[in-house]
Design a protein that fits this description.
Strand content: 35-45%
Number of helices: 2
Order of helices and strands: HEEHEEE
Largest sheet: 5 strands, antiparallel
Distance between the termini: 41 Å
Number of strands: 5
Oligomer: single chain
Shape: elongated
Radius of gyration: 18 Å
Structural class: alpha+beta
Helix content: 10-25%
Length: 105
Amino acid sequence: MMPRSLKALDLARDGRFSLHSATTDKQVTDGDAKISGVARHVEDESTFAAFREAFAAATGYPPPDGPFELFRADVREISMVKPAGDHLQIDMWSERGGIKHVDRY
């Protein structure tokens, strides 16, 4: 994230987050997903170096020059919803409850 951006400041103040997949299909035929957890601010240079290496390996180019804020996501919950004919298939995982599947009619 950009240094001192509102998102970075918000996460530094309260690390709870939830990311929901963007859906362009109003029927959600491919389903959607959400992950939630706690973001931890990263400050050690070895983690920044590892991130730069992983970014370059995944994209084929290094991250942009200049400073940036880095957070580590501690994922606590994942959910996926997908239409299945006359019902929804809901798959969930949480660190407290483990894996669950629900068919909602």
